[in-house]
Amino acid sequence: MCQSCGMPLSNDPNGGGTNSVGSKSEKYCSYCYQNGEFTFKGTVTEFQEFCRLKMKEVGHSGFKAWLFTRGMKRLERWK
Ligand SMILES: [Zn+2]
Hints:
- The protein is mostly helical.
- It has helices at residues 44-57, 62-69, and strands at residues 33-34, 37-38.
- The protein has a two-stranded antiparallel ribbon with strand order 1-2.
- The longest helix has 14 residues, at 44-57.
- The chain is globular, with a radius of gyration of 12 Å.
- The two termini are 16 Å apart.
- The structure holds zinc ion.
């Protein structure tokens, strides 16, 4: 799964983010990581908030959004 947001990489339509040299990242999804850089720069708390809003925007319930984001602090990027 993505070590930034926790999404399974198999759910990523692009199959993972891209490193600066153009290769695929095995650690991060295409939403979080593009061309060797994180798309969201901020604290994990801000990122959780950002993801919750995004999920609600596309129609997920507040509960599901909470469930998805609550484990983020344990992922490799935020350690
Ligand atoms: Zn991600």
